[in-house]
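It is worth pausing here to work through a concrete case rather than discussing structure prediction in the abstract. The textbook approach is simple: state the sequence, then state the predicted structure, then interpret. We follow exactly that order.
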Amino acid sequence: MTRLRTLPLSLRLVRELHARLMKGVRGDHATPGEFRRSQNWIGAPRSTLETAVYVPSPPEHLMETLGAWERFLHERDRVPDLVQCALMHEQFEAIHPFLDGNGRVGRLMITLFLIERRRLTQPLLYLSAYIERHRREYYDRLQAVRTEGDWAGWLRFFLAGVEETAREAVGQAGRLMDLRERWRERLRDYPKVAQLIDALFVNPYMSVARAQRILKVSNPTARQAVARLEKLGMLSEITGREWGRLYLARQILKVMEKTDTTRARDAKSKD
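Step two, the predicted structure:
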C-alpha cells in the first residue's frame, strides 16, 4: 500500500510483488521478480506440454500480452471497477507470467486494484478464503473463459465472492468490536493494562517484550500487565517455556476464524 503512493499498478510493481512474495518460500527457485523466459503450463502433477489442461502464451509473445494487460489495467470508466478487477485477474492468470507464484500475485492484485481505485481504504477484502473454499469452481470458471468464452460465468462467480467476503468482513468486524468493548469495560480499573487491548486486535499474539514496547514501561511492569490479562482469561501462554514466553488472545483468534469454521461445519452437516 505504501508503494502504491509512488508507483501505480504496473508490470514493474507486479515484479516487485513477486520478488517479495517468493523470497524464502516454495518456488523461490523460480526466478523471483522476473517474468518467465520459458514455456509453462497448467495441468495435473507430472503432466507434459502435450497433456496440459492449459498452455499460456509462449515466451516470445509474453511481453506483448503483458503490455496489453497493463494498458487495460490503466483504463478508467470503461466498465465498473469490480468488473474490471475480475477481468484483470482472469487475464493475469491466463497469461501466467511467472514460472511459479502466479496465483499468489494474482490474488493480491485484486486487493491492490481496489485500493488504487479507492474502493477500499484498507485491505479488508481479500478473496483468498473464498477462492480456497470454491477452488474447483474457481479453476473451472477460469478454464471456461479460455475454452468457451464464458465471461459471464466467471464474472458471476467473482462478484458473488466479493459480496460474500464483504458480508463476512462486516460481521466479523462487528464481533471484534463487541469483544473489544467488553474487554475494555473489564479493564476499566486498570487503564495502563487496557492499552494492550488495541494492540491485541492488531496482532493477537503478545510477549512481555512487545508489551514493554507498547506501554513504554520497565520489564517487570510489562510482565505484571501481561499477567493481569492472563488472570482475566484474555491471554493464554502457549509455549510452555520458562523464558521467551508467548501469549495468545484465543477469543480474538476464535472470532477471526469463526467464519471458516462455521462454514466447514455447515458443509459437513449437509453432507
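Step three, interpretation. Residues 260-271 have pLDDT under 50 and may be disordered. DSSP finds eleven helices and three strands in the chain.
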